[in-house]
Amino acid sequence: MLRPIGNVLALVALIFICGLHIAVLQAVASVRMVVNYSQSATFSEGLNKTLDGAHPCAMCLKIRKTQGDENKKSEAIGYSQKKSEAAILLPSAQVPVPLVSQSDYAGFVQKTARRTLEPALRPPRSAAV
């Protein structure tokens, strides 16, 4: 019963991680700007005013500020991640030995390829006999 709620929460988290919420907000702001600018001029002039970047609305300014803050945070996180990656790639780091070798897998495939037992039931005959 909780599975659909978990799926919805995972989808919402994915939307926020990918930054789609900002794209949706920017689309809403752009539509509002086109409508507002088109009331005092033609549609094409309103569209040009919206897309030229010289006439941002209050919502656009807030979105730009939010994007700038997120970029600063991601740069700070990226720097610390690079430091941890550098620590992993040190020459003294050892790669663990795999538990199963390629030869073990080949033997397993050969053993499972042969069938030694007959089927318990015979296959059904066709009805169109």
The number of helical elements comes to 5
Shape category: elongated
Number of strands: 0
Q: Spans of 5+ residues with little confidence (pLDDT < 50)?
A: none
Instruction: Tell me the span between the first and last alpha carbons.
Output: 49 Å
What's the average pLDDT? Answer: 75
Largest sheet: none
Strand percentage lies at under 5%
Percent helix range? 55-70%
**What class do helices, strands and sheet pairing give?**
mainly alpha
Radius of gyration (CA) equals 30 Å
Order of helices and strands: HHHHH
Describe this structure in words.
- The protein has 129 residues and is mainly alpha-helical.
- Helix 2 crosses helix 3 and helix 2 packs antiparallel against helix 4.
- The radius of gyration is 30 Å and the shape is elongated.
Labels describing this entry:
129 residues; mainly alpha; 5 helices; 0% strand
Secondary-structure map with pairings?
Elements lengths: L2 H16 L1 H21 L2 H9 L6 H31 L13 H12 L16
Helix pairs in contact: 2-3, 2-4
